[in-house]
Amino acid sequence: MTSTTIDTLRFATAGSVDDGKSTLVGRLLHDSKSVLTDQLEAVQRVSADRGQDAPDLALLTDGLRAEREQGITIDVAYRYFATPRRRFILADTPGHVQYTRNMVTGASTAELAIILVDARNGNVEQTLRHAAVAALLRVPNVVLAVNKMDLVGYGQPVFERIVEEFAGHAAELGLPSFTPIPVSALAGDNVVDRSAHMDWYEGPALLEFLEDVPVGADPSDAPARFPVQYVIRDGEVRWYAGQLVSGSLRVGDRVTVHPSGEGSEITGISVLGTEAEVAYAPQSVSLRLADQRDVARGDMITAGADAPALTQDVRAAVCHLADRPLRVGDRVLLRHTTRTVKAIVKDLAGAAELTANDLGRITLRTAEPLALDDYAVSRRTGAFLVIDPADGATLTAGMADLA
């Protein structure tokens, strides 16, 4: 499908403490004219009170961050701004190692991640951890923003050394590519406007890149996946409601219901209460089938020959989110799209346990088959959550690896 409206880029920022992420986000908002007048006046007033000559743009985000970091569990802060060319949803994630799970939350739906590095310190442990999360979540685009270039004399050798070292780690992590950009968030170099101090750099400023980077493939071009969320009974007729998470479905299409494997044909599609001939992802729709099949919440309706894998042995890369450890032998619930099944932890790739913020690998055995896609193919139908059956708390976020 084509669209006449400007598109939206969802991206996440990540960086170690004091790498200048707050200032970078503030500079993006300020120089793209996305700050309200009263907000800017408040920042100018506080900066002047502190004896600073220029507004401290980090204050545009630090006030919120201070509130978020009062407890151990903190939320990702979302910022919304726009230019004439594109809308943006920015997930501002914390940099501390104990908040890795929060970066996972912020980057899970992102199409781009900005990993910030202090030019004076180069790649540190958290840099590599953020790169590992980006690789784990299959974030399509990664920017390595080498910040504070003004503090190293805008030196090209410093930038190139950091980029070369990061490239080696990226290859080891399976991160296919990244775009390096030298910036000074404090001075504004290469954030929104090209820098006059780094004529050796021929690439785009950060905002230019954000405006031009291709937004992910149209989900309607992927194989059709329709997790059933709700069954609506209209007399003798049943409608199956939910969100078409990928692909397209038409009246007359032959479909398969998983996990039963039963086949049928679409005889009706309703979009917002109006009958339609075709539905495209990510529309929320209701489907009517030719046969009175025993279809329930949690079933997956697919079309075409490219069906998902039906399995009870789930292998995945994971990030453990809960304070409670996860151990081999634990009985859990696995929630995949609209389906929740009982499962047992069979293996943790040699680890004794997973604790909060750990990245690892897991094998689960489910009590019932799941219609899974590989996460590398579909971030929507390849992801799942591991749930504590005792209280319903989320324990672990998983990315299926069926290769």
What does this molecule look like?
The protein is α+β, with helices and mostly antiparallel strands and 403 residues long. The chain contains seven helices and 24 strands. The protein has helices at 21-31, 37-49, 59-68, 100-107, 125-136, 156-173, 206-212, and strands at residues 8-15, 77-82, 87-92, 112-118, 141-147, 179-182, 225-227, 230-234, 237-243, 248-250, 254-258, 262-271, 274-276, 278-280, 284-289, 300-303, 309-320, 326-327, 331-336, 339-347, 353-354, 359-372, 383-387, 394-400. Strands 7, 8, 9, 11, 12, 13, 15 and 16 form an eight-stranded antiparallel beta sheet that branches. It has a six-stranded mixed beta sheet with strand order 2-3-1-4-5-6, sandwiched between helices. Strand 19 (331-336) and strand 20 (339-347) form a beta hairpin. Helix 1 (21-31) packs across helix 3, helix 4 packs parallel to helix 5 (125-136) and helix 5 (125-136) crosses helix 6 (156-173). The chain is globular, with a radius of gyration of 24 Å.
